[in-house]
C-alpha cells in the first residue's frame, strides 16, 4: 500500500510540474537563442540589416529546434517500457545533443568568451612579435661581439708599424719601408671594419627603438577596454609596421660583411716588395712580411669562425598576423576557456537532466502500479466520473421505461375504439329503431342540477 501511495504521489507531482517543465525548456531555449544570435552576428558580413535578420532567423530556428527536441524526448522517452526502445531514444538524444553543440553551443561560447579569446590571440601574437624583435636585434648586434677583437688587431698592427718606423723593432732598421707600409695597410683595414660595425650599431639601435614603439602601441591595444573588433584592426596595422622593422633589422646585420672582410684579409693579402737598400735588409723585410702574413691568416680564421657562429644563430621566422573572429578564437583557444564552454553547453543540454529525472520517476510509478490492486488505481476523480456516468445511465433507463407504458396504453385505447365502432354500427343495423325526436339528451351534470 505504501508503494501504491508513493506511485500516486509521484504521478501527482509529475502532473503538477508540467507547466514548470515547459517554462524551464522555454527559458533555456530562449537563452540559447539570444547567445546564438550574438555569436552569429560576429561571423556574418554585410549590411547591418542583412546581418540582423540573418542572425535573428538563425537564432529563432535554434530556439525552436531545441525546445521541440527536448519536448519530444520528455514526452516519449520516460514512457518507453522495453529496453530496446529506450536505448534507441537515448541514442537519438546523444546524436541530437551533438548537433545542438555543433549549431548552438560553440556560438554561445563565442558570445560568452569571444572578446576574451580574441584578446588572448592578440596577447600571444604580441609575445611572438616581441620575441622576434629581440631575436632580430640580437642577430643584428651579433657582430658587435667581434668589435673588441677587431679593435685589438688593428691597434696591434698600428703599434707594430709605429715601432718599426721609430726603432726598427721588426727588421732592426728604423724608417718607413715595406713592413711599415704593410702594417699600416692592415691596421687601416681593421679600422674600416670597426667603423662599419659601429655605424651598424647606430642603425640597429634606431630600428630597435622604433620596434619598441610599435610594441608599446600593441600592448596598449591588448589591454585597452572597448569593442574588440576596432582594436584588432589597429593591432593588425601595428603588426605590419613591426614586421617591416624586424625585416630591416635582419638586413642590417653586418655579420655577413664581417665574414667576407675576414676572408679577404688572407685571400686578398698583397705583400709589398721588399724595398731594403741592401740585400740583408730586404731579406729581413721578407721574413717579417711572411710573419705578418701568417698573423693575418690566423686573425682571418678567428674572425671568420666567430662570424660563422653569429650567422648560425636561428633566423627570425616570417610571421604574419592573422585576425580571428570571436568564434574562431574560441575554437583555437578553447582549452583556456573551459568554464565558458561548460556554461554554453549546459544551457543547451540541461534538459537532458530533466529527461533523466522524468524517466526515473515514470519507472518508479510503473513499479508501484504493478503492485496496486484495481481499487487502488481508482482516484477520487475517477470515482466522481463513474458516479456521473452511472446517474446518466440510470436517468436514460428511467426515461426509456416511462416511454414504453404510454405507448402500450395508447395502442390499447386505439384497439378498443376500433372494436367499439363495429359494435355500434351493428346495433344500429339490428335494432333499426329511429331515435325519438322529442327526447332531449341530458348530460350527467345537467341531471345532477335537475335532481337538486
What does this structure look like?
The protein has 452 residues and is mostly helical. It folds into three domains: 2-79 and 337-370, no CATH class; 118-330, no CATH class; 378-409. It is 80% helix and 0% strand. It has helices spanning 2-16, 18-41, 48-76, 83-140, 147-167, 178-223, 228-252, 255-267, 279-311, 326-332, 338-349, 351-370, 380-431, 444-451. α1 (2-16) packs antiparallel against α12 (351-370). The longest helix is centred in the N-terminal third of the chain and has 58 residues, at 83-140. The chain starts with a helix and ends with a helix. Mean pLDDT is 79; it is low at 422-452.
Percent strand equals: under 5%
Count the domains: 3
Distance between the termini: 84 Å
Number of helices: 14
What attributes characterize this protein structure?
14 helices, single chain, transmembrane, membrane, transmembrane helix, mainly alpha, 452 residues
Describe how the helices and strands are arranged.
Elements: H1 2-16, H2 18-41, H3 48-76, H4 83-140, H5 147-167, H6 178-223, H7 228-252, H8 255-267, H9 279-311, H10 326-332, H11 338-349, H12 351-370, H13 380-431, H14 444-451
